Amino acid sequence: MARRASDTDDVLEERNEGRAAVLDAAARAFMHDGYAGTSIDDVAEQLGGTKGRVYHYYRSKADLFFDVHSESMRQNFEGAGAIAHEGGSPIDRLERMVRAHALLMMTHLPYQRVSVLGVEMHLAGNTTSKQRATLRDAIARRDEYERLFVQVVEDGIAAGEIRPLDAALVVKGLLGALNWITIWYRPRETDTGESRMRIAEEMTTYLISGLRRRG
Amino acid sequence: MARRASDTDDVLEERNEGRAAVLDAAARAFMHDGYAGTSIDDVAEQLGGTKGRVYHYYRSKADLFFDVHSESMRQNFEGAGAIAHEGGSPIDRLERMVRAHALLMMTHLPYQRVSVLGVEMHLAGNTTSKQRATLRDAIARRDEYERLFVQVVEDGIAAGEIRPLDAALVVKGLLGALNWITIWYRPRETDTGESRMRIAEEMTTYLISGLRRRG
DNA sequence: GTCTATACTAGGATAGAC
DNA sequence: GTCTATCCTAGTATAGAC
Fold first, then answer.
1. Nucleotides of D under 7 A from a protein CB
2. Which entry of A10, A31, A33, A47 is 20 to 30 Å from A110 by CA?
3. Is the overall model pTM greater than 0.90, yes or no?
4. How far apart are CA A157 and CA B23, in angstroms?
5. Which of A123, A156, A158 is nearest to A138 (CA)?
6. Residue B80: DSSP 8-state
7. How many helices (H) does chain B have, and how many strands (E)?
8. Which of B180, B182, B186, B197 to mutate to test the interface with A (most CBs of A within 10 A)?
9. CA atoms of B26 and B132, how far apart (whole Å)
10. CA of A4: how far to CAs of A7, A9, A10, A16, A63, in Å?
């Protein structure tokens, strides 16, 4: 994951892996207890180490939190966002975006659940101005991602494939239904990806069929 | 709100109002910063008083949290749950339940948002056995509420009004889309209920039309 | 690069005045 | 019934050994 093509720069390579391991532990810890409910000791325990390791890679808990969000949005743009600019009719693109987003919620559950639970809250005032800037940036990227969906829906309406409706509101409903997966979905040990595909497929069918003109 | 018909029992009356005021302040505070992110001082500030007032009515922060959940589920059963047992065809009942639930999310935003953000998390271990029992009860009531929706969908499928699909999964999507309203909806000062009705109506149309057999 | 030890503060909860 | 004063634990962050 996130391994660079070049394996020559070993120092940087290992630095990235250590950092990625901390980030992964943080995502899982935040997923369980939320931002405020998670202590750095919890993150360290998830990691199988101590506080010292965490603080070696991240200056503060807030920085860790931001990086989880950042990674989650990267996954979204790469996984579903890219489809917005691919070929195909608007409703076909939308259908693929919805399916991809549904799968992302399950395959990257820790990151996505933390992201879904919101960036705005959790940080009551005790932030530096630099952190507030990062926060604004995270919100902006999330809004931008949502706008990709709205645009495709509007294209679908213009093309006559989707019946006329409030595109912004429908996308709120659509992404709400999908983001909600992170709240109830619990992966099984025996989970091979088959069950995830079934959930994504069923959910996509439901959410898209309500948009089509006629039936 | 929650005023009893009889005004003779003034002592109990006032005791309830004081308690209700604390609960209301807690719901608003939790809505902003989540459970762990909210201090008792924050609740007191919302209330326009001090800690002492809060602890006079509630023994602990966890008890306050549970009561917010309890009140939110009471609102749901009263507002949308009751419709499940009313007359009309399954899909008509479902439509009314969905509309009612959407409106509940907006009219009781503080309580509903706290409820939506989850009971399970936020309480990492530091709970008494009595509190754990209350927690299990809260989860059970939420599941029971969800099952009302599933039952009506299954009735609709049996009646041939709704096309055959995974009722449990569709309800997850449906309630997810509706619960998500608490995440993005921000009431305006000029909000007369007109705009809330429009949102509820538009969302209901979208979520129901994907279920109907044919178009 | 990872650990232990420690400083420092925020916040839950209680006691007791008014 | 509401306040102020205080106790005490939990948790962020840092220093410095290994």
1. 1-5, 10-16
2. A10
3. yes
4. 45
5. A123
6. T
7. 10, 0
8. B180
9. 20
10. 7, 9, 11, 10, 23
